[in-house]
Amino acid sequence: MYLCEQCKQQVPANSSSYLFPLQIRKKAYPKRSKVNKYHHNHRLEYRDDRGGEGFEWVKALRVCPDCYQQLTKHSSLNKKE
Ligand SMILES: [Zn+2]
């Protein structure tokens, strides 16, 4: 049971909630040396993490299934072209 943050109505128990990203931003992950551990020939060895670029969520709404369908229809975030 929870309150939908879009329609502000109480949702009955045992119904799933969805997180909808309102705002996303680009994120750059720095290169880190010798952070990934692994075993090779019974020896512990370390490997670098390359880092890179990606996206992270700034704000998200917890919404009911109906609101999630409506939001994803009209959203430009999830359109892949
Ligand atoms: Zn709702």
Count the beta strands. Answer: 6
Oligomeric state, counting identical vs distinct chains:
single chain
The H-and-E topology, N to C, reads as EEEEEEH
Task: Report the sheet with the most strands, covering strand number, pairing sense and barrel closure.
Answer: 2 strands, antiparallel
Unreliably modeled segments: none
Task: Provide the list of bound ligands, each named once.
Answer: zinc ion
Give the helix proportion (percent range): 10-25%
Return Rg in Å.
20 Å
Gross geometry: elongated
Work out the count of structural domains: 1
- Average of per-residue pLDDT values: 91
Structural class of the helices, strands and pairings? Answer: mainly beta
Strand order of the largest sheet: 1-2
Gap between N and C termini: 36 Å
What do these coordinates show?
The chain is mainly beta and 81 residues long. It has one domain. The protein contains 1 helix and 6 strands, in the order ββββββα. The strands form 3 sheets. It has a two-stranded antiparallel ribbon with strand order 1-2. A two-stranded antiparallel sheet has the order 3-6. The longest helix is centred in the C-terminal third of the chain and has 10 residues. The two termini are 36 Å apart. Zinc ion binds next to helix 1.
Short structural description:
This protein has 81 residues and is mainly beta. It has one helix and six strands; from the N terminus they run E-E-E-E-E-E-H.
